[in-house]
Description:
Layout: H1 25-38, E1 61-65, H2 71-79, E2 84-89, H3 92-105, E3 110-114, H4 117-123, E4 130-136, H5 154-163, E5 164-174, H6 177-188, E6 193-195, H7 209-216, E7 222-228
Parallel strand pairs: 1-2, 1-4, 2-3, 4-5
Antiparallel strand pairs: 5-7, 6-7
The protein binds S-adenosylmethionine.
Amino acid sequence: xxxxxxxxxxxxxxxxxxxxxxxxxxxxxxxxxxxxxxxxxxxxxxxxxxxxxxxxxxxxxxxxxxxxxxxxxxxxxxxxxxxxxxxxxxxxxxxxxxxxxxxxxxxxxxxxxxxxxxxxxxxxxxxxxxxxxxxxxxxxxxxxxxxxxxxxxxxxxxxxxxxxxxxxxxxxxxxxxxxxxxxxxxxxxxxxxxxxxxxxxxxxxxxxxxxxxxxxxxxxxxxxxxxxx
Length: 229
Ligand SMILES: C[S@@+](CC[C@H](N)C(=O)[O-])C[C@H]1O[C@@H](n2cnc3c(N)ncnc32)[C@H](O)[C@@H]1O
């Protein structure tokens, strides 16, 4: 049993905005029709064995945390058909939209879980399941008073490290310089990480609507790459 087990009780502040919008009719349909294929449901005390859910048996997972509307996750699943991808997101309309896009793209190597990634990774997996964890444009919480709500915190970094295989990568992309500095400080002051220049997965990164808006508004994109030592 993981020494990180928390049994459904989140001890950190929410890193996301609650109640962000209702499902459209199309999203409700996607939720009803596509969740049985793409969704991994779980009870509060259930530990998931990835081999029960993914088509490429025994392959480590690529995990994307906070995939939003799923564009990057689906592009990655299409580019890497022999890999297993897991998306974790709290936002129900985003999950439904992503499943609809995955269905249209005919993507089958992708599954999604709904919940706070910190709890999902802590309570619902036990071993080193992934070789890559991606966090694309986490909610920045730029004001110092909100810094406790940032997703990248020492506890989260420890959970991710426990789920990564040796030499696995954590890739974080942000358009907020203060968040990039925050992430570098948090990860490099946590035990067992080093910063690296490259990762096999950065070349598959696509520019999502969120990133396009950031570029159009003149913000620089910071791509941080860390490796589990
Ligand atoms: C700013 S959006 C970026 C979405 C997407 N990655 C992109 O690049 O377009 C951040 C996303 O992270 C999700 N999120 C924030 N905290 C999370 C958490 N603890 N667990 C899972 N998802 C989370 C939010 O719901 C939101 O969809």
